[in-house]
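Notes, Module 5: Reading structure tokens.

Key idea: the token line is not a picture. It is a compressed description, and you learn to read it the same way you learned to read a sequence, by spotting repeated patterns. We will look at two proteins. The first is printed below with its tokens.
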Amino acid sequence: MELFLSIAITHFIALLTPGADFFLILKTLMQSQKRAARFTCAGIALGNAIILISIYLSLFIIGQVNTELFILMKWLGVVYFAYLAFQCFRLAQSAQRVNQLAEQRIDQPQKHAYLKAFLSGLFSSLFNPKNLMFYSVLVILIYPQYSFVQNALLCFWMVGLVLIWNLAIVQLIGSSIYLSWLNRHLRHLYYLAGFSFLLFMLVLIIY
């Protein structure tokens, strides 16, 4: 019980800390709409699930977490965060108001936009080594302590919590009050997101 409470508190603190996923959701919400941002949340949750499955498979097959996977994810993360930063700076240069973007969305194929949002969330989650390191530490702690069913339930709980938390963020900042605020500060928020992605990229390089 004490171990579970420690994991729950640690996981909740990690959710409270704004990271790459948060700024990606913010970028999607500014660029597209709430439904597209929800697809981004689904992609992030799936990425978390894939990471957890990969860690368990690594422990089951070779008895330890594969360090080469950390290195691969690190450099893929550097490239992907650089791409996201470039996209944010490009959008900031030609930032348009939310209502102008809404008019453009009518002409955009929705399925393509949703797929793009989903894949963006998936790649952000998979290519962020912080997720791999965070879950590796947790899994190493709980793997020998709990049964297979308990490990599976705990993983479902962690992934579900990530999904619910991110959907709540979308619901909150996607309300009309916050959209009005986004309307006034759209350009600055794109720059904020861009510099945040650059910061995440530099941290990965230095680390």
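Here is the second protein, with the sequence above and the tokens below, as before.
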Amino acid sequence: MGMCLYPYLPNRMAVHWNVNGEPNEFMSKQVVVAFIPCFIIFSYGFLYIISHNIFKFNEREHCIIGGFIKKMTLFMLFIHMLILLINFGDFIFFQTGLTIGISMFLFMLSKEFKKIKGKEKDPIKLQKIRLVSRRIFQVMACGILFSLFLNLEWGFYILLSVISCGSMLFMFYIFYSYIIESYET
């Protein structure tokens, strides 16, 4: 898509926007159209090689890591396409597109926890972590979607708050379930 839009894009493309929606960092269109997709492909390949050759995972763990790598790659491609479309025509704020993208990423991540089928021999703790993690990511995604209804500045603060609180809740739950529950038994 970048090559199709290339002749119609400005020579200096915005790649970063203020909270107000005004661009404040620019790059040449060659970097945005050619270098960023190459970087995304390189990072996908690098993570794939690391997960298959350096860490010796079993097949189930490869499925988990591969799903996460695919979700990250899709998110980066979404951001790249968002930058191209904003520079092609000013019809959406970057923050609005980014908010939608983050929410989609969190919903896809929660679905990834659902796809991981636990075996009967999996510990109860691991099954509970999967269930709670899925719910945490779904609540984060809904909270981030709620921030779309606010003005840009308040939406930005809600976005940061939801991501921060959700991440801390996720880490504290894992800490609780592995360390404190293990200590109690």
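Summary for the second protein:
- Residues 152-184 form the longest helix (33 residues).
- DSSP finds six helices and two strands in the chain.
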